[in-house]
Amino acid sequence: MPIKIPGDLPAKETLQREGVMVMSEEDAIRQDIRPMRIALLNLMPNKIRTETQFARLIGATPLQVEMTLIRMTRHKPRNTPMSHLTAFYRTFEEVAEAGEKFDGLIITGAPVELLPFEEVRYWDELCDIFDWTQTHVHTTMCICWGAQAALYHFYRVPKHELPRKAFGVFRHRNLKPSSPYLRGFSDDFSIPVSRWTEVRPADLPTGAGLEVLMESDETGLCLVEDANRRMLYMFNHIEYDTTSLAEEYWRDVERGIDIQIPANYFPGDDPHATPENRWRSHAHLLFGNWINEMYQTTPFEIEKIGIVANARPGSGMTREQAERRAGGAGGG
Length: 332
Hints:
By secondary structure, the chain is α/β, with parallel strands linked by helices.
Protein backbone atom coordinates (compact mmCIF):
# COMPACT_ATOMS: atom_id res chain seq x y z
CA MET A 1 0.00 0.00 0.00
CA PRO A 2 1.15 3.59 -0.62
CA ILE A 3 1.47 6.71 1.48
CA LYS A 4 -1.14 9.45 1.13
CA ILE A 5 0.36 12.95 1.02
CA PRO A 6 -0.76 16.22 -0.60
CA GLY A 7 -0.47 15.93 -4.37
CA ASP A 8 1.80 18.95 -4.74
CA LEU A 9 4.08 18.28 -1.74
CA PRO A 10 7.70 18.50 -3.02
CA ALA A 11 8.46 15.07 -1.57
CA LYS A 12 6.00 13.41 -3.99
CA GLU A 13 8.21 13.60 -7.07
CA THR A 14 11.25 12.32 -5.18
CA LEU A 15 9.34 9.40 -3.69
CA GLN A 16 7.86 8.39 -7.02
CA ARG A 17 11.31 8.39 -8.65
CA GLU A 18 12.46 6.03 -5.89
CA GLY A 19 9.54 3.66 -6.47
CA VAL A 20 7.54 4.57 -3.37
CA MET A 21 3.83 4.36 -4.12
CA VAL A 22 2.09 7.68 -3.50
CA MET A 23 -1.70 7.72 -3.32
CA SER A 24 -4.02 10.55 -4.29
CA GLU A 25 -6.91 11.64 -2.10
CA GLU A 26 -9.38 10.32 -4.68
CA ASP A 27 -7.80 6.85 -4.79
CA ALA A 28 -7.58 6.67 -1.01
CA ILE A 29 -11.29 7.37 -0.62
CA ARG A 30 -12.14 4.46 -2.95
CA GLN A 31 -10.36 1.99 -0.66
CA ASP A 32 -12.72 0.84 2.05
CA ILE A 33 -10.11 0.73 4.83
CA ARG A 34 -8.98 3.00 7.60
CA PRO A 35 -5.47 4.27 6.84
CA MET A 36 -2.89 4.51 9.60
CA ARG A 37 -2.72 8.16 10.63
CA ILE A 38 0.86 9.24 11.30
CA ALA A 39 1.83 12.83 12.04
CA LEU A 40 5.25 14.44 11.70
CA LEU A 41 6.12 17.29 14.06
CA ASN A 42 8.94 18.79 12.01
CA LEU A 43 11.42 20.86 14.03
CA MET A 44 14.30 20.61 11.53
CA PRO A 45 15.42 23.71 9.59
CA ASN A 46 15.27 22.02 6.16
CA LYS A 47 11.67 20.93 6.43
CA ILE A 48 11.28 19.79 2.83
CA ARG A 49 14.22 17.38 3.07
CA THR A 50 13.02 16.06 6.44
CA GLU A 51 9.48 15.51 5.10
CA THR A 52 10.93 13.41 2.29
CA GLN A 53 13.17 11.36 4.58
CA PHE A 54 10.34 10.29 6.87
CA ALA A 55 7.72 9.93 4.12
CA ARG A 56 10.11 7.52 2.38
CA LEU A 57 10.29 5.32 5.48
CA ILE A 58 6.65 5.30 6.53
CA GLY A 59 5.50 4.90 2.93
CA ALA A 60 7.41 1.65 2.37
CA THR A 61 5.19 -0.63 4.47
CA PRO A 62 2.31 -2.82 3.18
CA LEU A 63 -0.22 -0.53 4.93
CA GLN A 64 -1.96 2.58 3.68
CA VAL A 65 -0.53 5.52 5.64
CA GLU A 66 -1.87 9.08 5.80
CA MET A 67 0.82 11.58 6.80
CA THR A 68 -0.07 14.85 8.51
CA LEU A 69 2.56 17.60 8.81
CA ILE A 70 2.55 19.64 12.02
CA ARG A 71 4.57 22.69 13.07
CA MET A 72 4.85 24.74 16.23
CA THR A 73 2.13 27.35 16.56
CA ARG A 74 4.05 30.49 17.43
CA HIS A 75 7.58 29.66 16.23
CA LYS A 76 8.31 30.98 12.73
CA PRO A 77 11.01 28.93 10.94
CA ARG A 78 13.57 30.97 9.02
CA ASN A 79 14.68 28.32 6.51
CA THR A 80 11.36 27.30 4.97
CA PRO A 81 9.11 29.60 2.89
CA MET A 82 5.91 30.57 4.67
CA SER A 83 4.03 29.60 1.50
CA HIS A 84 5.19 26.00 1.99
CA LEU A 85 4.21 25.98 5.66
CA THR A 86 0.80 27.48 4.92
CA ALA A 87 0.10 25.04 2.10
CA PHE A 88 1.16 21.80 3.78
CA TYR A 89 1.41 22.24 7.56
CA ARG A 90 -1.08 22.61 10.36
CA THR A 91 -0.12 24.23 13.63
CA PHE A 92 -0.28 22.15 16.78
CA GLU A 93 -2.92 24.55 18.08
CA GLU A 94 -5.14 23.76 15.09
CA VAL A 95 -4.70 20.01 15.53
CA ALA A 96 -5.34 20.13 19.28
CA GLU A 97 -8.42 22.32 18.98
CA ALA A 98 -9.86 19.92 16.40
CA GLY A 99 -9.43 17.06 18.88
CA GLU A 100 -7.56 14.97 16.31
CA LYS A 101 -5.97 11.64 17.23
CA PHE A 102 -3.17 9.74 15.54
CA ASP A 103 -1.92 6.18 15.46
CA GLY A 104 1.66 7.46 15.36
CA LEU A 105 3.64 10.65 15.79
CA ILE A 106 7.27 11.40 14.87
CA ILE A 107 8.96 14.31 16.66
CA THR A 108 12.17 15.29 14.90
CA GLY A 109 15.38 16.70 16.27
CA ALA A 110 16.28 20.40 16.17
CA PRO A 111 19.58 22.34 16.03
CA VAL A 112 19.21 23.68 19.59
CA GLU A 113 21.18 21.01 21.47
CA LEU A 114 23.54 23.38 23.25
CA LEU A 115 20.72 25.50 24.70
CA PRO A 116 19.19 24.57 28.06
CA PHE A 117 15.79 23.05 27.33
CA GLU A 118 13.87 25.87 29.02
CA GLU A 119 15.63 28.48 26.86
CA VAL A 120 14.30 27.02 23.61
CA ARG A 121 11.70 29.49 22.36
CA TYR A 122 8.99 26.90 21.84
CA TRP A 123 9.76 24.78 24.92
CA ASP A 124 6.43 25.39 26.69
CA GLU A 125 4.43 24.39 23.63
CA LEU A 126 6.60 21.32 23.09
CA CYS A 127 5.89 20.24 26.68
CA ASP A 128 2.18 20.60 25.91
CA ILE A 129 2.69 18.37 22.87
CA PHE A 130 4.50 15.71 24.92
CA ASP A 131 1.58 15.65 27.38
CA TRP A 132 -0.95 15.63 24.53
CA THR A 133 0.63 12.47 23.08
CA GLN A 134 -0.44 10.53 26.15
CA THR A 135 -4.12 10.90 25.28
CA HIS A 136 -4.18 11.60 21.53
CA VAL A 137 -1.40 9.44 20.04
CA HIS A 138 -1.09 5.67 20.24
CA THR A 139 2.70 5.54 19.84
CA THR A 140 5.36 8.24 19.45
CA MET A 141 8.92 8.13 18.09
CA CYS A 142 11.21 10.99 19.14
CA ILE A 143 14.42 11.64 17.19
CA CYS A 144 17.79 13.02 18.43
CA TRP A 145 17.16 16.29 20.34
CA GLY A 146 13.45 15.45 20.31
CA ALA A 147 14.28 12.26 22.23
CA GLN A 148 16.46 14.13 24.71
CA ALA A 149 13.72 16.72 25.21
CA ALA A 150 11.04 14.08 25.85
CA LEU A 151 13.17 12.25 28.41
CA TYR A 152 13.89 15.53 30.15
CA HIS A 153 10.21 16.51 30.18
CA PHE A 154 8.89 13.20 31.50
CA TYR A 155 11.78 12.09 33.72
CA ARG A 156 14.14 15.09 34.10
CA VAL A 157 16.94 13.10 32.45
CA PRO A 158 19.76 15.59 31.69
CA LYS A 159 21.75 15.95 28.49
CA HIS A 160 25.53 16.32 28.63
CA GLU A 161 27.68 18.36 26.26
CA LEU A 162 30.31 16.32 24.44
CA PRO A 163 33.96 17.44 24.15
CA ARG A 164 33.50 17.28 20.39
CA LYS A 165 30.62 16.47 18.09
CA ALA A 166 29.62 12.81 17.74
CA PHE A 167 29.70 12.81 13.96
CA GLY A 168 29.82 9.95 11.51
CA VAL A 169 28.50 6.43 10.92
CA PHE A 170 29.05 4.17 13.92
CA ARG A 171 28.56 0.50 14.66
CA HIS A 172 25.70 -0.34 17.01
CA ARG A 173 24.64 -3.46 18.87
CA ASN A 174 21.22 -5.09 19.02
CA LEU A 175 20.61 -5.54 22.76
CA LYS A 176 17.15 -7.13 22.51
CA PRO A 177 16.56 -9.23 19.37
CA SER A 178 13.20 -10.31 20.80
CA SER A 179 11.85 -6.74 20.72
CA PRO A 180 9.13 -6.29 18.07
CA TYR A 181 10.93 -3.11 17.02
CA LEU A 182 14.16 -5.00 16.26
CA ARG A 183 12.62 -7.94 14.47
CA GLY A 184 14.98 -8.92 11.64
CA PHE A 185 17.82 -6.68 12.82
CA SER A 186 21.41 -7.85 12.58
CA ASP A 187 23.46 -8.23 15.75
CA ASP A 188 25.73 -5.45 14.50
CA PHE A 189 24.74 -2.56 12.22
CA SER A 190 25.68 1.03 11.34
CA ILE A 191 23.71 4.23 12.01
CA PRO A 192 24.54 7.90 11.30
CA VAL A 193 25.19 10.06 14.36
CA SER A 194 25.26 13.86 14.42
CA ARG A 195 24.95 15.57 17.81
CA TRP A 196 26.83 17.73 20.29
CA THR A 197 25.21 16.24 23.40
CA GLU A 198 24.33 12.85 24.85
CA VAL A 199 22.04 11.11 27.33
CA ARG A 200 23.91 8.70 29.59
CA PRO A 201 22.58 5.28 30.67
CA ALA A 202 23.36 6.02 34.33
CA ASP A 203 20.90 8.93 34.25
CA LEU A 204 17.93 6.82 33.13
CA PRO A 205 15.59 6.40 36.11
CA THR A 206 15.33 2.91 37.56
CA GLY A 207 11.85 1.49 37.91
CA ALA A 208 10.42 3.63 35.10
CA GLY A 209 10.29 0.75 32.62
CA LEU A 210 12.83 2.28 30.23
CA GLU A 211 14.68 -0.35 28.20
CA VAL A 212 17.78 0.21 26.09
CA LEU A 213 17.37 -1.56 22.72
CA MET A 214 20.40 -0.26 20.79
CA GLU A 215 23.74 1.23 21.80
CA SER A 216 27.21 1.92 20.45
CA ASP A 217 30.55 1.49 22.20
CA GLU A 218 31.66 4.78 20.63
CA THR A 219 28.58 6.99 20.84
CA GLY A 220 26.49 5.44 23.62
CA LEU A 221 22.71 5.20 23.72
CA CYS A 222 20.86 4.90 20.44
CA LEU A 223 17.32 3.56 20.99
CA VAL A 224 15.34 3.38 24.24
CA GLU A 225 11.82 2.02 24.61
CA ASP A 226 9.39 3.57 27.08
CA ALA A 227 6.56 1.02 27.08
CA ASN A 228 4.53 2.78 29.77
CA ARG A 229 4.27 5.96 27.70
CA ARG A 230 4.23 4.12 24.36
CA MET A 231 7.30 6.04 23.17
CA LEU A 232 10.58 5.28 21.44
CA TYR A 233 13.60 7.54 21.94
CA MET A 234 16.01 7.41 18.98
CA PHE A 235 19.09 9.55 19.66
CA ASN A 236 20.66 9.17 16.22
CA HIS A 237 19.66 9.83 12.61
CA ILE A 238 18.76 6.51 11.05
CA GLU A 239 16.44 8.45 8.71
CA TYR A 240 19.31 10.37 7.04
CA ASP A 241 19.91 10.36 3.30
CA THR A 242 23.23 9.13 1.91
CA THR A 243 24.58 12.67 1.60
CA SER A 244 23.13 14.24 4.77
CA LEU A 245 26.34 14.03 6.80
CA ALA A 246 28.38 15.34 3.86
CA GLU A 247 26.12 18.35 3.53
CA GLU A 248 26.39 19.04 7.27
CA TYR A 249 30.19 18.76 7.06
CA TRP A 250 30.56 21.18 4.13
CA ARG A 251 28.02 23.60 5.64
CA ASP A 252 30.13 23.82 8.83
CA VAL A 253 33.35 24.14 6.84
CA GLU A 254 31.89 27.05 4.88
CA ARG A 255 30.84 28.71 8.15
CA GLY A 256 34.36 28.41 9.53
CA ILE A 257 33.34 25.93 12.23
CA ASP A 258 36.13 23.63 13.44
CA ILE A 259 34.49 20.33 12.51
CA GLN A 260 36.12 16.94 12.03
CA ILE A 261 35.47 14.74 9.01
CA PRO A 262 32.54 12.43 9.82
CA ALA A 263 33.94 9.08 10.99
CA ASN A 264 33.54 5.89 8.93
CA TYR A 265 31.67 7.78 6.22
CA PHE A 266 33.71 9.08 3.29
CA PRO A 267 35.73 6.38 1.49
CA GLY A 268 39.35 6.86 2.56
CA ASP A 269 38.24 9.82 4.70
CA ASP A 270 38.23 11.87 1.49
CA PRO A 271 35.44 14.46 1.86
CA HIS A 272 35.29 14.78 -1.93
CA ALA A 273 34.48 11.08 -2.36
CA THR A 274 30.91 9.84 -2.65
CA PRO A 275 29.82 8.16 0.62
CA GLU A 276 28.13 4.77 0.70
CA ASN A 277 24.83 4.21 2.51
CA ARG A 278 25.21 1.31 4.99
CA TRP A 279 22.09 1.97 7.09
CA ARG A 280 19.23 2.25 4.58
CA SER A 281 17.92 -1.30 5.06
CA HIS A 282 17.87 -1.03 8.85
CA ALA A 283 16.10 2.33 8.66
CA HIS A 284 13.31 0.74 6.63
CA LEU A 285 13.26 -2.23 8.98
CA LEU A 286 12.92 -0.10 12.12
CA PHE A 287 10.09 2.02 10.75
CA GLY A 288 8.38 -1.01 9.25
CA ASN A 289 8.51 -2.76 12.62
CA TRP A 290 7.25 0.37 14.39
CA ILE A 291 4.28 0.70 12.05
CA ASN A 292 3.52 -3.03 12.21
CA GLU A 293 3.50 -2.93 16.02
CA MET A 294 1.32 0.17 15.86
CA TYR A 295 -1.09 -1.58 13.50
CA GLN A 296 -1.33 -4.64 15.73
CA THR A 297 -2.11 -2.66 18.89
CA THR A 298 -3.94 0.54 17.95
CA PRO A 299 -7.75 0.65 18.26
CA PHE A 300 -9.57 0.08 14.99
CA GLU A 301 -11.71 3.14 15.71
CA ILE A 302 -9.22 5.95 16.09
CA GLU A 303 -11.55 7.82 18.45
CA LYS A 304 -10.79 5.17 21.09
CA ILE A 305 -7.07 5.93 21.22
CA GLY A 306 -7.42 8.14 24.30
CA ILE A 307 -9.24 5.40 26.22
CA VAL A 308 -6.96 2.51 25.31
CA ALA A 309 -3.93 4.74 25.88
CA ASN A 310 -4.77 4.86 29.58
CA ALA A 311 -4.56 1.06 29.86
CA ARG A 312 -0.89 1.04 30.79
CA PRO A 313 0.89 -0.15 33.92
CA GLY A 314 -0.25 1.82 36.94
CA SER A 315 -3.61 2.81 35.44
CA GLY A 316 -5.48 -0.06 37.11
CA MET A 317 -7.01 -1.05 33.78
CA THR A 318 -5.97 -3.67 31.26
CA ARG A 319 -6.05 -3.01 27.53
CA GLU A 320 -8.98 -5.44 27.17
CA GLN A 321 -10.93 -3.64 29.90
CA ALA A 322 -10.26 -0.30 28.26
CA GLU A 323 -11.47 -1.57 24.89
CA ARG A 324 -14.63 -3.02 26.42
CA ARG A 325 -15.29 0.32 28.09
CA ALA A 326 -14.74 1.98 24.72
CA GLY A 327 -17.37 -0.31 23.25
CA GLY A 328 -15.51 -2.52 20.83
CA ALA A 329 -12.50 -4.49 19.77
CA GLY A 330 -9.14 -2.98 19.04
CA GLY A 331 -6.29 -3.67 16.64
CA GLY A 332 -7.05 -3.31 12.94
